[in-house]
Amino acid sequence: MRTDVNRLMQGMDLFILPSLFEGFPMTMIEAQSAGLPCMISDKVPPQCDVTGNVQIMTLDSTPEEWAKHILDQSDKYAAKSDRADGAKSVTKAGYDIVKNAEWLQDFYVNALAKAEARERR
After folding, report:
1. pLDDT tens by residue, 65-111
2. Is 14 among the domain residues?
3. Rounded to an integer, what distance in angstroms lies between the CA atom of residue 12 and that of residue 9?
4. Least packed by Cβ within 10 Å: which of 39, 62, 91, 121?
5. Residue 99 lies in a domain
6. CA-to-CA distance for 116 and 93, rounded, in angstroms?
């Protein structure tokens, strides 16, 4: 458990997730928020690409193919020094804790009001 993941990710050039299986990895949202280009295995759900900055590689590829792709991606994004757009892109995709908390609160308040209205009938 860490509270400084955002700071750690600023020291990275690329986020790589060669997982055998995943649900919906929140680490991908964190990495994209940090403005990192990402490379994932074909076992990670492609829905976690919320910025269009994620490349998918098959786990059947050789380690040499993975290494070449990693270096190519790193070179491609090396010129991009401004990572501020990552957080904006992730927020635009609907991953905003404040807005989601408000939506969840409204959902439960409305559900409670409906349940109370049914009880009064």
Report:
1. 999 999 988 777 765 656 778 888 888 888 888 888 999 999 999 99
2. yes
3. 5
4. 121
5. no
6. 34
